[in-house]
Amino acid sequence: MKKVLGVMLAMAMTLTLFAGCGGEKDKPADGETKKAEAGESKDSGDDGEKAGSSEGGEITLAFVGPQTGDNAEYGKSMKVAIQIAIDEWNEKGGVNGQQIKLVDYDDANTSEQAASVAQKIVGDDSISAVIGHFSSGVAMTASEVYEESGIAYISGSAAHVDLTKIGDCIYRNNAVYATDANTMLQIVQYLGLKKIGILNPNSDAGVAVTTEIQNMMDAYGDKYDAELVLAELYEDGTVDFSATVSKFEEAGVECVYSSGAYAQTAPFIKQYREKNKDVQFIMSAACFSQEFLELAGADAEGVVLGTSFFYESSDEVVKAFSEKFNAAYGSNPSTFCGQVYDATYAILYAIEKGGSADRAAILENLPSTDFQGVTGKITFDEEGNCPKQQVLLKVEGGKYVEIPGVLKSQTDYEKELGVQ
């Protein structure tokens, strides 16, 4: 079965196991967090110690994400969310009597740097598990290293379907591209639009989500009456989208979908609005952030997107997390922040259940994860994915508002179309 082989390999590599007492799962506890940028920088040249055996009996988790470059805001904010989760556990006594600390690394959202950082992490035996890496290509590169070394890794943002297929050590707490594609098609139908344009990054991830949309539309056939009239790719760092806007205008698209990060999609939207104020923009959760609203300004008005997390949810656990994040970071948490927060809880529950912060013990207990997080029910399927139900948000008056009752699960939507 999926995950068993990885556990056996990791156990064969294990040198130390820790005894501890398991605890009952509970929801994230209330408590204040550090009102400073979270995390502790890790000197990559330090000699590592065995997980949980460092001075003071600490358990060490690693976060890796972009903290420099165009996508730095994603990495910085996710690190804060992880630290909030760790603070909550530490305030109630840690896990199995041990305090938790976070060390962080910058991968600049590049595969080259991610591979180097991953090697440093797996070589440091004091690190029990890894969370992070922002984009799919970067995460997949690093995951090869984590899998070979037998350390658990959970992504909170990488959506490429092949990520968790890399092996038994690789998990994900975010929607895959099939979910994003299906959400986009539901939104198009809800809005009554017929001609779709797509603008995605020229990367494995960008091509994958475009292909997923087209395949889904082909499978739905005449049950789905909108058409994909133009799909365009852009290079990383693009700032001038005028030629692309002209192509979309000539093709007569009514809406444009993009899975790109806000650093590129916000300028694209602003440039498109100069020619056409009426075109509808459908974004991915990568644009669910205060930074997107600030960059796009008034041109963000009317933008819609699907997300598995909304900080204005009526759920008390979501409210508590959002309040702590806002106090620590000065803005509302994004979907990715909620997802890495829950990923941290998943790892700590696995440590608690196994009574050990050993890498093999974590891998043994992650498959049985089952708790209610801020991004929904957290359980992993046989491939290590966590199914996500999304809600529809729209930018109105410069803020995100929820439009309830629109989005269904992919399974329910396909039943509704009669294509199963």
Indicate the topology:
Layout lengths: L3 H10 L26 E2 L17 E7 L6 H20 L8 E7 L4 H12 L4 E6 L3 H14 L2 E4 L14 E3 L4 H15 L3 E7 L2 H17 L6 E8 L7 H10 L3 E4 L3 H12 L6 E4 L6 H7 L7 E4 L8 H14 L5 H20 L4 H7 L5 E3 L2 E3 L12 E6 L2 E5 L6 H8 L3
Parallel strand pairs: 1-3, 2-3, 2-4, 4-5, 5-6, 7-8, 7-9, 9-10, 10-11
Antiparallel strand pairs: 11-14, 12-13, 14-15
Task: Give a verbal description of the structure.
- 40% of the residues lie in helices and 17% in strands.
- The strands form three sheets. It has a seven-stranded mixed sheet, with helices on both faces. Strands 1-3-2-4-5-6 form a six-stranded parallel sheet, sandwiched between helices. A two-stranded antiparallel ribbon has the order 12-13.
- Mean pLDDT is 88; it is low at 1-55.
- The chain is built from 13 helices and 15 strands.
- It is α/β, with parallel strands linked by helices.
